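Colleagues,

For the teaching module next term, I've prepared a clean inverse folding example: a structure given as tokens, and then the sequence designed for it. I'd like students to try predicting residues themselves before seeing the answer, so please don't circulate the second half yet.
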């Protein structure tokens, strides 16, 4: 299972948080005695928004601690603490990926995924697996991308804050262990 870090703040988001989060890629809490205790080294990503606008989106393949771009993005976010004016809000989504056994590994499969719809930019990161997901996954080989596409399809363009329920079943029946709550 992957690891997620999220922050919504008008206060500081410290660089140390990103360092400690990156350490999970190597020493991530994986089930002890499990045949695969490899941590979370199948990709990483950070998306951050400043006052609701996407400021940066960086993803990579492999473990975050071995990637200078991860720390460069984290430093940029931490530096905003110094330069930020009162009332400026930040939203940060960071993800460390532990791919499922047969899932592809690569930068393009690393979360968070970004898409624009109805004049708004959306970021999505998923932690867990999906049960009996009733949506055609092609050409997306990962359940996370399929879920993101389904959520985007179900956004109500008339009211961007509202969303229609998925077509076939309630979301909580589609989702296995995940950070999404229906």
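(Answer key — instructors only)
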């Amino acid at each position: 299972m992957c690891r997620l870090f999220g922050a919504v703040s008008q206060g500081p988001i410290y660089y140390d948080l990103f360092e400690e989060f990156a350490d999970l890629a190597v020493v991530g809490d994986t089930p002890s005695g499990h045949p695969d205790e490899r941590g979370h080294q199948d990709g990483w990503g950070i998306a951050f928004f400043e006052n609701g606008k996407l400021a940066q989106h960086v993803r990579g393949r492999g473990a975050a601690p071995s990637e200078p771009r991860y720390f460069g993005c984290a430093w940029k976010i931490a530096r905003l603490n110094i330069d930020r004016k009162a009332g400026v809000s930040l939203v940060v989504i960071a993800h460390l990926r532990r791919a499922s056994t047969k899932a592809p590994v690569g930068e393009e499969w690393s979360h968070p995924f970004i898409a624009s719809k109805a004049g708004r930019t959306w970021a999505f990161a998923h932690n867990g697996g999906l049960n009996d997901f009733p949506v055609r996954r092609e050409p997306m080989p990962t359940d996370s991308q399929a879920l993101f596409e389904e959520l985007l399809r179900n956004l109500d363009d008339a009211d961007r804050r509202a969303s229609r329920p998925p077509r076939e079943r309630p979301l909580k029946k589609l989702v296995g262990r995940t950070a999404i709550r229906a």
